[in-house]
What we know:
By secondary structure, the chain is mainly alpha-helical. The chain has helices spanning 3-49, 51-62, 64-67, 71-78, 90-105, 111-140, 146-161, 181-185.
Amino acid sequence: MSNDLVSTLSAVVSTLVIAIGAVAAIVQLRHLRASNELDGIIALEENFRNAEMQAALRYIQTELPLRLEDSEYRAMLARRGFIDTHEHPELIVCNWCNTLGTLVKHHVVSEEMFMDLFARLIIFTWRNLEPVVAIMRRTRGEVQYHDFEYIAIRAERWLAQHPAGSFPKGHARRTIADPWHDVDEEPTVS
């Protein structure tokens, strides 16, 4: 066997080994990204379920509309500087949703997976908190909660494209019995 042939075979084998290594690295990186994304989604779900967040979500649904009628309450939101989340628990939700928007915008988590889990919640919270964001933007500018705004826009778009959610096409749905439907729909007597 000539030196040229050995040299050529050696170069081909080396290139092949490098190519196989590169493919293995890409596969490994994909698995690592999927694992990190799963960890991120699990962390978001845990944050959503914690007591402080649940209390803040209840607050924006039940108390915030009345609190916003108070000019002093609104003035605290309009001021620059620190706002105490004990007095303004709606900001816990604003901050969380803004973080979610940042994570989706920078592709830290898959938008498709995120929207499947949280699109309706994001739209609900934005609709409840849009007046708060508007008040804060009077003094803080358009940048205030801009990633929350971004994720709300993306969620509206996603729901328009998936009005019934993202149940896999071609799979039969179950018929779900609602034994209390008729009872709950009866008019109540006062």
